[in-house]
Design brief:
There is one protein chain. The protein is an alpha/beta fold. It has two domains: 227 residues, Aspartate Aminotransferase, domain 2 (3-Layer(aba) Sandwich), CATH 3.40.640.10; 117 residues, Aspartate Aminotransferase, domain 1 (Alpha-Beta Complex). It has 13 helices and eleven strands. A seven-stranded mixed sheet has the order 1-7-6-5-4-2-3, sandwiched between helices. A two-stranded antiparallel ribbon has the order 8-9. Strand 2, helix 5 and strand 3 form a beta-alpha-beta unit. Helix 10 packs parallel to helix 13. The longest helix is centred in the C-terminal third of the chain and has 19 residues. The radius of gyration is 21 Å and the shape is globular. It starts with a helix and ends with a helix.
């Protein structure tokens, strides 16, 4: 879904230089480039505290650990998403309450959260999915304030879509290679405005240490390495430009594919940075289209094929109609910034040919 080799070649000179510098300095863990990248990312997002870590899942775990909720607390999580938020909540001993999502934009809503809320709920995790910030975020944040519960925003797929956030929530992101801002390995970060919370999260990410061999709180080992920080600093400079190109690619798809009645195209929104361009198509046709595109050497992917509550590890006896419909209908096609007009046209030609 992303041509990582082509992406590297476009930035090869700059990336090779920062990698070479890190190798010459020999400071691979928590080197100076890590602090520099955190500062650059704080300036970019407008959120003053950035704590880098090993990956996006660790970022969610650190965010939940920092809340210090009682074991057994209930946490609301949207069920149409990647497994990570459910995984860490379960791992830490919390009970997951699943909320359905909007059928049009794939994100959860205040209405869906209110439908499953009970006084036992101590936190809500929302996911800004596929590059589109959740439209009800401010309403959900106010709801959390009224109920005195915490809000965590999983921003792994939407970094750069919203800046200068003044909510007192905790945000997390991922630098997995295919993300809009991707490393050449794993990486993640936690964002928050609260200084004391940030201090605790930073301790937790380094074995709970306030200084070497001084362990104040229970922590984990989750650090962004210096090589990745240098690479991310280079790529951060181009993030807005590449996000804008993703938007242009999405508009191209809209123009070319809107006449196909069997397809439901994603919503175009000014804040949408299109980590994924996800269409909806009836189930049997979807599988046929996947095979047809594969024959044309076009990659496509289903995000996500099975509702989390139907996964063996997290089964619950519930049924959420929007989630189940989306799992049976969604299909993502390439949208990355380096796609050429010829490639976009080839993909659209193939889809049109299939429906003819």
């Amino acid at each position: 879904m992303v041509d990582l080799k082509q992406q590297y070649l476009q930035l090869k000179t700059e990336i090779d230089a920062v990698v070479q510098q890190s190798l010459l300095e020999g400071d691979y863990v928590q080197g100076k480039q890590v602090k520099l990248f955190e500062k650059e990312l704080a300036n970019y997002t407008g959120i003053r505290n950035v704590i880098s870590c090993g990956n996006g899942t660790d970022a969610l775990q650190l965010a939940l650990m920092a809340l210090n909720l009682p074991k057994g607390s209930k946490i609301i999580v949207p069920t149409f998403t990647y497994i990570a938020p459910v995984e860490v909540a379960t791992f830490l001993g919390y009970k997951v309450v699943f909320a359905d999502v909007d059928i049009t934009d794939f994100n959860t809503t205040l209405e869906h959260i209110q439908a499953v809320y009970t006084p036992e709920v101590k936190a809500i995790i929302i996911v800004h999915l596929f590059g589109l910030p959740c439209k009800d975020t401010e309403l959900i944040y106010q709801f959390c304030q009224e109920k005195n519960i915490a809000l965590i925003e999983d921003n792994a797929q939407s970094l750069g879509a919203e800046k200068n956030i003044d909510r007192e929530s905790i945000l997390t992101t991922s630098f997995y290679p295919t993300k809009n801002l991707g490393a050449y390995g794993d990486g993640g970060a936690v964002f928050c405005r609260d200084e004391n919370l940030a201090i605790n999260i930073r301790k937790m990410a380094t074995h709970g240490q306030s200084a070497k061999y001084m362990h104040d709180i229970v922590g984990i080992n989750s650090r962004l390495d210096t090589l990745q920080a240098g690479i991310l600093s280079v790529k951060l400079k181009y993030l807005d430009r590449q996000n804008e190109q993703r938007r242009k690619n999405a508009h191209y798809y809209q123009e070319r594919l809107q006449h196909i009645e069997a397809l439901e195209l994603p919503t175009i929104h000014p804040n949408h940075i299109f980590h994924l361009y996800t269409i909806k198509i009836e189930n049997k046709k979807r599988d046929m289209l996947i095979d047809f595109l594969k024959q044309k050497e076009i990659t496509s992917i289903v995000n996500y094929p099975i509702p989390i509550y139907q996964q063996k590890a997290y089964q619950q006896d519930i049924s959420l109609k929007n989630t189940e419909r989306l799992c049976s209908e969604v299909l993502s096609i390439p949208i990355y910034a380096a796609l050429t007009t010829a490639q976009l046209s080839y993909i659209c030609d193939a889809i049109e040919e299939f429906f003819k």
